[in-house]
């Protein structure tokens, strides 16, 4: 009877244990939030909070001469306002300095002089695997940024990792409604955000390479 009485009076898990169990479950869910998202007050369901899981395809496969990566001129097209150029140049320098040497399209650097702005924007979107949207107050005010965003969404309506929204100094209520079906990265710590962008681009290129390889088998 002693063991039965102890079983009946077995203490319930503490609130701390319950919280830990809940957080473990949430960490495997797409709706889990990062510390940056919490600090920003944004909805955890809208923030890209998880580190990207490694894919079985290696960086060597992505860099191989026959990789599907080389079917387009650029790995990443950076869509941004001119007022954010300094930050974007840091991001481009980071991505191009990675071991994979990501190929970035930066409008003020890579656009052909004398070409029409609309033509250059459309070509950059079509010839890039991924599009990073640096959404800042300047982006929201710039009609060309919105135009480029719409071009990217028209190119890949379901996104599938190709469109990567990055919010900086923008409230969740001002997040473009056209992108609200996509997870975003909230830029609180620049280094962490740069790494998340790199990992997201890497994952898409790995999936592209894997799909291409399986399709030829």
How would you describe this structure in keywords?
receptor; Toll-like receptor 2 binding; 10 helices; Rossmann fold; 11% strand; Tol-interleuk_rcpt_adapt_Tirap; 5 strands; 217 residues; alpha/beta; five-stranded parallel β-sheet; single chain
Summarize the structure.
The chain is an alpha/beta fold and 217 residues long. It is built from 10 helices and 5 strands. It has a domain of 137 residues: Rossmann fold, CATH 3.40.50.10140.
Write the layout of secondary structure elements.
Layout: H1 2-8, H2 15-27, H3 35-40, H4 59-63, E1 74-79, H5 85-96, E2 104-105, H6 107-110, H7 117-126, E3 128-135, H8 137-141, H9 143-155, E4 163-167, E5 185-186, H10 190-216
Parallel strand pairs: 1-2, 1-3, 3-4, 4-5
Structure, described:
- One of its GO terms (biological process) is positive regulation of canonical NF-kappaB signal transduction.
- It holds the Pfam family TIR_2.
- It comes from Cathartes aura (Turkey vulture).
- Keywords: Receptor.
- The chain has helices spanning 2-8, 15-27, 35-40, 59-63, 85-96, 107-110, 117-126, 137-141, 143-155, 190-216, and strands spanning 74-79, 104-105, 128-135, 163-167, 185-186.
- It has 217 residues and is of the alpha/beta class.
- It has a domain at 74-210: Toll/interleukin-1 receptor homology (TIR) domain (Rossmann fold, 3-Layer(aba) Sandwich).
- Strands 2-1-3-4-5 form a 5-stranded parallel sheet, sandwiched between helices.
- Helix 7 (117-126) runs parallel beside helix 9 (143-155).
- The radius of gyration is 21 Å and the shape is globular.
């Amino acid at each position: 009877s002693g063991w039965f009485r102890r079983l009946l009076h077995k203490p319930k898990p503490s609130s701390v244990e319950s919280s830990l169990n809940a957080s473990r479950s949430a960490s495997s869910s797409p709706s889990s939030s990062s510390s940056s998202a919490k600090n920003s007050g944004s909805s955890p369901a809208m923030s890209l909070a998880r580190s990207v899981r490694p894919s079985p395809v290696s960086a060597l496969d992505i860099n191989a001469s026959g990789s599907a990566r080389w079917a387009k001129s650029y790995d990443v097209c950076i869509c941004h306002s001119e007022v954010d150029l300094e930050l974007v140049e840091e991001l481009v320098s980071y991505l191009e300095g990675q071991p994979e040497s990501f190929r970035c399209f930066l409008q003020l650097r890579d656009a052909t002089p004398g070409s029409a702005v609309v033509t250059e924007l459309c070509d950059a979107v079509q010839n890039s695997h991924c599009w990073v949207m640096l959404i800042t107050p300047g982006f929201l005010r710039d009609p060309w940024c919105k135009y480029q965003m719409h071009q990217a969404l028209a190119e890949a309506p379901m996104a599938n990792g190709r469109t990567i929204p990055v919010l900086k100094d923008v409230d969740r209520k001002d997040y473009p409604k056209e992108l609200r079906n996509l997870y975003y990265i909230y830029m609180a710590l620049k280094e962490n955000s740069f790494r998340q962008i790199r990992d997201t681009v890497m994952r898409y290129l790995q999936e592209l390479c894997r799909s291409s390889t399986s399709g030829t088998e």
